[in-house]
Amino acid sequence: MVASKALANALMMEGKWVQTFPEYGVERRGAPVVSFTRIDDKRIYLRCKIYEPDHVVVMDPKLMGAVDVTGGLKSGGWVIINSEKDAKTFRMLDKFRVRTFDASSLALKYGLGSKAAPIVNMPMLGAFAKITGFVGLDALLKAVREESPIKKDENVQAAKEAYESM
Amino acid sequence: MSEKIEIRGERDMPVNAMSLGLMTWNKTGSWRNLRPVIDYERCTGCMICWKFCPDACINIENERPVIDLDYCKGCGICVEECPKVAISVVKEE
Amino acid sequence: MKKVIMGNHALSYGAMMARAQVIPAYPITPQTEVVGLLSELCADGLLDAKFIKVESEHSAMAAAIGASAVGARAFTATSAQGLALMHEMLHWAVGARLPVVLGNINRAMGPPWTIWTDQNDSLSQRDTGLIQFYCESNQEVLDTVIQAFKISENEKVLLPSMIVLDAFVLSHTSEVVDMPDQKLVDEYLPSYKARYRVHPSDPHSFGALTTPDAYYELRYKIERSMMEAKELIKKAGEEFGEVFGRKYGLIETYQTEDADFIIVASATVAGTARTVIDELRAQGQKVGLVRVRVFRPFPFQEIRQALKGAGKVVVIDRNISFGHSGIFFQEVKAGMYDQPDRPPIFGYIAGLGGRDVTPDTIKEIVADAKGKQKSEENIIWIGLKP
Fold first, then answer.
1. Residue B1 neighbours by CB under 8 Å, 6+ apart
2. Considering only Cβ atoms within 10 Å of each terminal Cβ, which end of chain B, N or C, has fewer?
3. Per the domain annotation, does A68 fall within a domain?
4. Closest Cβ opposite residue C174 in set A20, A24, A49
5. CB-CB: which of C115, C167, C271 is closest to A47?
6. Is residue A40 a part of any domain in this protein?
7. Structural domains of chain C in order of their starting residue, each with its CATH number
8. Per-residue pLDDT of chain B (93 residues; tens, 9 = 90+)
9. What pLDDT score was predicted for residue A28?
10. CB B17 to CB C111 under 8 A?
11. Exposed (0-12), middle (13-18) or buried (19+): which is B83, by Cβ within 10 Å?
12. Given CB atoms, is A30 within the 8 Å cutoff of chain B?
């Protein structure tokens, strides 16, 4: 959710209209969380959940057993997964363009979260921004700084390294 | 009425929600990230954990506390409150 | 300056920019962030207001009434069961003619327990005498808080206002909001100078016993103020447009000029309906939208004008008056009764308890009504699982 907000903020800086919202529910630690973002060049009037996303970012690959992460995903869409494994491992996703990125290791390198629970949202956002080309590095890093509740420098550095490594 | 009602539509439902959120099948233990484990060597059976558990997940069996893992959400209050430091947590996988 | 903020924070920033002086509040999902941010703004000294943690919503409105009675600008926010608990005090604020501004996040009433949106909480307060605004975007939420104080505090009005936004669909959705310049807000909304107030050196009572000799006339005055409010809401919305570039009125129309089929909706459902209208227009269907922004005072004239000449009208209600129909439907239909050549009006219920209202839901409504000659039922259920 923090990553979605940072993405929305960065896109706003580049003059886009954005709308971002969590899956409306009773959030609790450890439960799968879904967050949606709509992007447009003009004002967004549509107000409902996103059933057919263009792209998906998977922050925790363990979710892939429990949740149909590509449900409704348009064919040819990006699936960006936080994993140290090769993209070919996720062969069930043949219809889509798959990229993996080891955001957990990068998060730990910058002291974001703990080994048991690395906080990967900003590095994943960096990777997403570069792969999709939706948003430039300057706006991205400014937004990451604004939206990171703590460890602003570390989050910015992690997002930057993620962006540049793609 | 302890079974989960499969809701296909209005016809399957009772007039109120009394059977839609029944705790017999809504096992909140699946929410748990950390599992409390009691070291019975240290436990004196004082039952302070039983008193503090906010979800009534500690049962008394043979004068000893036993954690009901079907419902324990792993909040860790028992770990904090145990005067004998007899409860520790392990990560759920 | 533009910012990405959630609907709840749009309420908080609205109250901050309106320079609310007293904020008594009690948290409830999905309103919590409104109060959270306001308490932080007060604690950080960014808002010079007294934040009062109260023990219930009844007390929240009671404290707001007390603050308003001594001439302070008072704001609070709540949702669903909280608004229901506040009910007695809403009558109190109206009867005492105190311009409190209240934010309400539309959440369906329990039981069964729910946190998701529908309009039955705020519409249950229909007959209290609150001015009611239904918002479509976070921008409108923020802008309306500022306008609401201006309208409520006008001496011709002196009635409390309620600003309503859909749970989660707005309250927890973050989007781009243009933050008004504080200096311009201060010029648009000068500080509140209460004409009627209590002070230790000038004691009065706002709730004294009133015999049948006088009560009747005081009720008449409330109704007359409601009627005055209609013009003042329009004026405040126009003036707001001149200063900030965003105009507001009692209703908003979209593609109605040549429409032979008109959808009447409110809040975020109206936004989704716009996208459907664009789609249907591209297929050559002449469909238009009336969004009801102000529910009390009810905009009879504006709705009659907008629906004049339409072949068919559908009203989409995310609410229900059990034993009757959707509430907007009742009101629109009653408003059209004495109009010559009134169109058939169909009443649809959709999205109760947060059931998602998608473009498909609205297309289904349009197709259903197009296939019917007359409206014979008071309620048509859309998406009901049999």
1. B18, B19, B22
2. C
3. yes
4. A20
5. C271
6. no
7. 2-244 (3.40.50.970), 251-381 (3.40.50.920)
8. 456 777 889 988 888 887 777 778 778 888 888 899 999 999 999 999 999 999 999 999 999 999 999 999 999 999 999 999 999 999 887
9. 64
10. yes
11. exposed
12. yes
For residue B42, being part of any structural domain is answered with yes
Distance from CA of A116 to the nearest CA of B (A): 9
All chains having 3 or more CB pairs closer than 8 angstroms to chain A: B, C
Note the pLDDT of residue B17.
81
Mutate to test the interface with B, among A27, A29, A33 (most CBs of B within 10 A): A29
Q: What is the CATH number of the domain that holds A127?
A: 3.40.920.10
Residues C26-82 pLDDT 10s: 999 999 999 999 999 999 999 999 999 999 999 999 999 999 999 999 999 999 999
Query: How far is residue C371's CA from residue C378's CA, in Å, rounded to a whole number?
Result: 16
Q: Is residue B7 part of a domain?
A: no
- Structural domain including B77 reads 28-91
- Residue C29 phi/psi, 5-degree rounding, is -65, 135
Tell me which chain C residue has its CA closest to the CA of residue B14: C112
B20 lies in some domain: no
pLDDT of residue A30: 61
**Percentage with pLDDT > 70 across chain A:** 96
Residue A73: inside a domain: yes
CB contact under 8 A, B21 and C112: yes
Q: Which residues on chain C are in Cβ contact (under 8 Å) with B17? A: 111-113
The DSSP annotation for B46-93 comes to --HHHHH-TT--EEEETTEEEE-TTT-----HHHHH-TT--EEEEE--
User: Is the distance from CB of A35 to CB of A20 less than 8 angstroms?
Assistant: yes
C114: closest chain B residue by CA: B17
Domain assignment present for B65 = yes
Q: Would you say residue A68 has pLDDT above 50?
A: yes
The answer, yes or no, to whether residue A110 has pLDDT greater than 80, is yes
In a domain, A11, yes or no: no
DSSP secondary structure string for all residues of A80-117: EEE-SS-GGG-GGGTTSEEEEE-HHHHHHHTT-B-SSS
What ipTM score was computed for the predicted complex, to two decimals? 0.94
The arrangement of strands across the sheet holding C174-178 comes to A35-40, A17-22, C174-178, C2-6
Q: How many domains does chain A have?
A: 1
Whether residue A116 and residue B32 make contact (CB cut-off 8 A), yes or no, is no
When divided into structural domains, chain B yields a total of 1
Q: Which residue has the higher pLDDT, C156 or B91?
A: C156
Both structure tokens of A116: 């048991």
pTM value is: 0.94
Q: What tokens does C80 get?
A: 């669903």
